[in-house]
Amino acid sequence: MAANTQFIPLNIAVLTVSDSRDESTDSSGDLLVQRITDAGHMLYQKQIVKDDRFEIRAVLSAWILDVDCAAVVLTGGTGVTGRDGTPEAISPLFDKTLGGFGELFRMLSYDEIGASTVQSRALAGVANGTLLFALPGSNNACKLGWDKIIQSQLDARTKPCNFVALISRMMEH
To answer: Cα torsion at 61, 66, 67, 72 (round to 10°)?
Structure first.
């Protein structure tokens, strides 16, 4: 990290997608909130929604319309069961897909869980200038995604490039 670049705190929201979790059992959402604030960012909002593509989109649509929300980290709903619908919910919102995020997540995850990583549909994109990162619902997956990928890309000091340097230009046409 370059010494002459300062850290820029961002407003980051956390959305837990789950049919079974509530505030008392949302360990992956709590983990992400802790990591976000420990990194020096500000929690924009935290919410839990059922694994329903329309509920997910409703919350995300409000957040991506607010210029104060720079990024959203979602946890849950990225598997392959019938109720796992996070990718289908958020993909239509993307102006740009960040294909490398899911690829890198699965590559790093392979070291921890082997070929089972193929069951993860982690993904990321940009919607109305807001970064969206969708992670599996396990604590280990959230740690991996935040610690190894998202944190550095949401830090202006990361070189050679990071998303913070691009946020002001994501709405260019």
So the answer is: -50
88 torsion bin: left (phi>0), alpha (psi -120 to 50), beta (else): alpha
Helices and strands counted in the chain (H then E)? 6, 6
In 3D space, the residue among 150, 173, 154 whose CA is nearest the CA of residue 165 turns out to be 154
Question: Nearest to residue 55, comparing CAs of 81, 20, 16?
Answer: 16
The predicted model scores a pTM of 0.95
pLDDT band at 4; cut points 50, 70, 90: low
Continuous segment of H or E residues that includes residue 44: strand 42-49
Give the residue carrying structure tokens 């994501």: 170
Q: What is the pLDDT of residues 151-168, one digit of tens each?
A: 999 999 999 999 999 998
Look up tokens 């993909």; give the residue.
91
- Partners of 46 in beta bridges: 14
Q: What does the DSSP 8-state code read for residue 73?
A: E
Structure confidence by residue, pLDDT tens digits, 73-129: 999 989 888 888 999 999 999 999 999 999 999 999 999 999 999 999 999 999 999
Query: With contact defined as beta carbons under 8 Å apart, do 122 and 145 qualify?
Result: yes
